[in-house]
Amino acid sequence: MKLSEIDATLRQIRVSPVKTLGQNFLHDQNLARWIVAKAELAADDFVVEIGPGLGALTEFALASGAHVLALEKDARLADFLRENLRNERIEVRHGDALDFDPRELFVHGPVKLLGNLPYYVASQLLLRFIAQPSAISLGVLMLQNEMARRLSAQPRSPEYGALTLLVQSSYKVEFLRSVPKTVFLPEPEVDSALIEISPRAPGELPDHDAETFRRLVRTGFSQRRKQLRKLLRSEVPDWSAAVDDGGFDLRARAEELTLAQWIGLARIVRSPAPENRAPGDPELFPVVDQGDQFVRLAHRAEVHGDNLRHRAVHIFLFNAAGELFLQKRSWRKDRHPGTWDSSAAGHLEGEEEYDIAAVRELKEELGVTAKLDRVRKLGPSDQTGQEFIWLYRAQPEGPFQLEPAEIETGGFFPTDLIDRWREARPGDFAPGFIECWKAFRETKCAGTAER
Ligand code: SAM
Description:
This protein has helices spanning about 5-10, 30-40, 60-65, 75-85, 120-130, 145-150, 160-170, 210-220, 230, 240-245, 260-270, 300-305, 355-365, 415-425, 430-440, and strands at about 25, 45-50, 65-70, 90-95, 110-115, 135-145, 170-180, 185, 190-200, 285-290, 295-300, 310-315, 325-330, 340, 345, 375-380, 385-395, 405-415. It is α/β, with parallel strands linked by helices. It has 3 domains: about 5-200, 3-Layer(aba) Sandwich (Rossmann fold), CATH 3.40.50.150; about 210-270, rRNA adenine dimethylase, C-terminal domain (Helicase, Ruva Protein, domain 3, Orthogonal Bundle), CATH 1.10.8; about 285-445, Nucleoside Triphosphate Pyrophosphohydrolase. It has a 7-stranded mixed sheet with strand order 4-3-2-5-6-9-7, with helices on both faces. Strands 15-12-17-16 form a 4-stranded mixed sheet, sandwiched between helices. Strands 14-13-18 form a 3-stranded antiparallel sheet. Helix 4 links the parallel strand 3 and strand 4. S-adenosylmethionine (SAM) binds near residues 22 and 73.
């Protein structure tokens, strides 16, 4: 909309911009077109737009043929958009975008995030939508200039801080351009800027424990002027070795370390498991007959290559809200890399028993122990890769320590969301999980803890 149209529309719908809702409407159509073009929308894209207002960006997004979910807090604007856009590819949802559950977006697959964000709540909104695990595959966002600078900052600059690193450890952030106040009605009090964020590719950064990384960064920036060797003394007692390893100054402060050097510190504090077994230490799986009776041991490659019957465990972990923890398998896995899977799962090794293997897998993959209840046993099939599977459930206290060599990310998901997600996008899941989930849903006792 042009300036005169925005003015006329606001008068027509009797709305005067509400400052506390960050209502500054974009009237530069060339800029609106440019912003949406940056998102490179195609007809099969799904877009979530935060704060569509009068639809400055929404119109262009819809013109691309993409589906748009628009989250607007002001009921008058939400009504106006529904009335004005009348397009079957848009859903306008009235409500606070901070109350929207971004996990819903997994049902729509990779989702693009668009918005001229309301500045009073921009950082909370951004962090909520990009928190891991996230379905966002690209974001083009207008923010306060100062916030955009912080997110895209480089080491040794005043804007470089904990927020920079926490975001940049999962996303690449590009500062696109500054935006003058004059493109908005009314003009905001602060300068604006556009950024583009895109998730880092699997394997782009060395494996590290995300929780350790976050803790170190927060501690390191808690006193910006203080040397890290003092701030991190209890976490990294051998600071000289860390300096040799990371190649930074002995007296470095938090703002001097690059993302890679921070990750290096996290790897010193909690070293990830080796990516591959040592040569001469092959995994030996028990090959079993139709009745799950032990026949012989065979190498993993032979078992999988020749589709031999073998044994596995899957574990479903629920939180107090009855949500199921799903893990995203590492991109390095030889089978079903990057797919969503049971909370923990793995093969029985040697002549190990099912119950013992379940405890071991839980500890190895998530770093927890819990009282495990048997749910049911699944027979071998093509879907399970000829595995006999014992499925377990538990409600552990946590917190989990995800093993980076095995797991890319993970999170709790409501069970009805998993049903809809599986229905809409079965390819997002490992086939073994799908079989276990179906079996779990069919099992009568399944209805007790989860919702
Ligand atoms: N996208 C429009 C544009 O470019 O002209 C409007 C941008 S304006 C800066 C921010 C918009 O976010 C307003 O429409 C405002 O009502 C809406 N908004 C404010 N707080 C919100 C929240 N918590 N959740 C969803 N929308 C919100």
